[in-house]
Amino acid sequence: MRPADAGGAVSPALGADELVKAVRGLGKIAKVRAHAVCNVGSPSVTFDHVLDSLAWADGEVAAGAVGVVLTHGTDTIEETAYLLDLLWGRPEPLIVTGAMRSAEEVGADGPANLLAALIAATHARLRGLGALLVMDDSIHLADRVTKTHAMAVSTFASPWGAPIGRVEEGRVVLDYLPADRRPDPLELPGSRTTRVALMEAALGDEGHLVRLAVDGGYDGIVIAGAGAGHVSAIAAEVVGEAVPRVPVVMATRTGAGRTATRKYGYPGAEIDLLRRGVIMAGALSARKARLLLWALLGAGAGRERIAREFALRGRSAG
Hints:
Blueprint: E1 2-3, E2 10-11, H1 16-21, H2 26-29, H3 47-62, E3 68-71, H4 77-87, E4 94-97, H5 110-121, E5 131-135, E6 138-141, E7 146-147, E8 156-157, E9 165-168, E10 171-174, E11 196-200, H6 208-215, E12 220-225, H7 233-242, E13 248-252, H8 270-275, E14 279-280, H9 286-298, H10 303-313
Parallel strand pairs: 3-4, 4-5, 11-12, 12-13, 13-14
Antiparallel strand pairs: 1-2, 5-6, 6-9, 7-8, 9-10
Helix pairs in contact: 4-9, 6-7, 9-10
């Protein structure tokens, strides 16, 4: 980002070569090939942009790259990282990074983040871990990381886990490698036109948005439920009517923890919703559950496979 007007408001302006040239010491770590896939604000990133980036990254590795770094705006960076992680079939590290301060600001963090990302991309012990997010010298798994503050430089965290390591003194230090083997990557979606609605359960909600999504032709629905994945009794009736028509996935809106499977039995709680055919997202946030459902539906997955994939990738406690 750079100022685009006299008022100082910033917009995407730097190309790939400029980003690389702005960081001292990159050439001592690796030979870097730079390429601009697109240059838009991250709220405007599309599924096509992500899949084009995936194809570019795959081609670079096929041509001999030991790792890939993708720069991205931070607003939706966790979503892109997770979608890439679902589809990345190479052992080479795919590192996503960005900046909270623009290039012209005092203390701009972009160069440091890019340097740390490059160090991570060349580290042998990060092979086989899929897509990772590196910001503020911390290394996060794509399925766990989230943005926790609108403006702070230290905004990225893994609320229900921890960063798996850090970049310190020019090297990777690993502390918490995942105990479970990374699930196999999903096949590429055959359709890019799948639509999955995302909504949040709230006080007084009667399920109107669920009905609108179904009647509006959406292919799937993800709800950020209250607590451990709950909706009102009235909304539960609407959800039950929607399930035979489209897959409905329930996540938690709390920001950490898993959806429950057998604790609460009142209407609209998890036991009731499971009986109605709702799929629980486990530890996946609603944003990431939407991406998993989008990828599965785009690949033609049926309900049984969708439920299995959510149990696996959501690290369900049930």
